[in-house]
Amino acid sequence: MEKCPFCEAELAGEMPRFCSSCGSELAEAAGVGAPEPSGGDPATPQEEVLFDARPAVLGSAAELLLTILTVGIALLFFWLRSLGRHYRITTQRIVVEHGILNKRLEQIELSRVMDFVVERPLGQRMMGTGNLVLSTADRSTPELRIDGISADVRALYEELRAAVEEEKRLRGVRVVDME
């Protein structure tokens, strides 16, 4: 039985186009049916990676201070915590992988993102990190926190905001506030 190359879930029947577990496009992974780089179909844009990283090991000044006070023992805990998360943000979706031994994969389509909040408390600004909090229309994950971003969180926010608007435009998604 075939397995998904992204999440290792078993695929039922013939090779489907999308994995039923993680939603990844399987034809793209296998190189079958993927558009050619130079002459691909302009109606279906390629998925591009905007951000692909783990959270910073030491995300704030308080964590650095705790590591110094425990003579580095806390660093082991923070390192393992960092290994347990992996964020991949593309022009079409956000994929969050949780766990070290047991893995859980969450995926949210960008068209379901409703609002953004950038958090940069003093301790994180001192360490050059920040958090991105996304409100989504997803029932299983109404709020998604991307903590400990060591890249420029404001630049990532701007890229993500533009990608969300483009994805909503391509899919014809309209947001209506009901109060």
Structure explained in plain terms:
The chain is α+β, with helices and mostly antiparallel strands. It contains five helices and seven strands. Helices cover 28% and strands 25% of the residues. The strands form two sheets. A four-stranded antiparallel β-sheet has the order 1-2-3-4. Helix 2 (61-69) crosses helix 3. The chain is globular.
Highest CATH level, the class of the domain at 47-171: Mainly Beta
* Series of secondary-structure elements, N-terminal to C-terminal: HEHHEEEEHEEH
Low-confidence stretches: 31-39
Fraction of residues in helix? 25-40%
Give the mean pLDDT: 85
Second CATH tier, the architecture of the domain at 47-171: Roll
Structure summary, number of beta strands: 7
Global geometry:
globular
Instruction: Please give the alpha-carbon distance between the first and last residues.
Output: 49 Å
CATH topology of the domain at 47-171: PH-domain like
| Biggest sheet: strand arrangement | 1-2-3-4
- Compute the CA-based radius of gyration: 19 Å
User: Which structural class matches the secondary elements?
Assistant: alpha+beta
Present the secondary structure layout.
Blueprint: H1 26-30, E1 49-53, H2 61-69, H3 73-83, E2 85-90, E3 93-98, E4 104-109, E5 113-119, H4 122-127, E6 130-136, E7 143-149, H5 153-171
Antiparallel strand pairs: 1-2, 2-3, 3-4, 5-6, 6-7
